[in-house]
Design goal:
By secondary structure, this protein is α/β, with parallel strands linked by helices. The protein contains three helices and five strands.
Length: 110
């Protein structure tokens, strides 16, 4: 299974999916990590640090680009995610997973 973990620093899980700087992509099987790669989040204005407000006002807000960037993943996890992002992921066959306690990315994937 391929799992995307939202991260700010490439080493820990991000508090918010759409505002992460990168995704740690894990290939895992039977609870073991087989491969790990890092993908920058250049798909959202949040990821690029261009959205500094809680709301989006009149700004169009699509998650299509980030979903496309994670098209080869079966799950995406983080500590928090908006319902629109979760819905877009699910409609594209990617299961959103909210991790409810502090874990390392490797522990959460396992």
């Amino acid at each position: 299974m391929r799992v995307a973990v939202a991260s700010q620093d490439g080493q820990s899980i991000s508090a918010h999916f759409g505002r992460c700087a990168c995704f740690i992509i894990f290939d895992a099987e039977d609870g073991a990590v087989l491969r790990k790669e890092l993908r920058k989040n250049t798909q959202t204005s949040h990821g690029g640090g261009n959205c500094h407000t809680a709301g989006h006002g009149d700004q169009p807000h699509s998650h299509a680009a980030v979903v496309q960037a994670l098209h080869d993943c079966q799950a995406a996890l983080c500590y928090g995610m908006g319902w629109m992002a979760a819905d877009e992921l699910m409609r594209n066959g990617i299961q959103p997973v909210i991790v409810d306690r502090k874990r390392s990315p490797e522990e959460a994937v396992a």
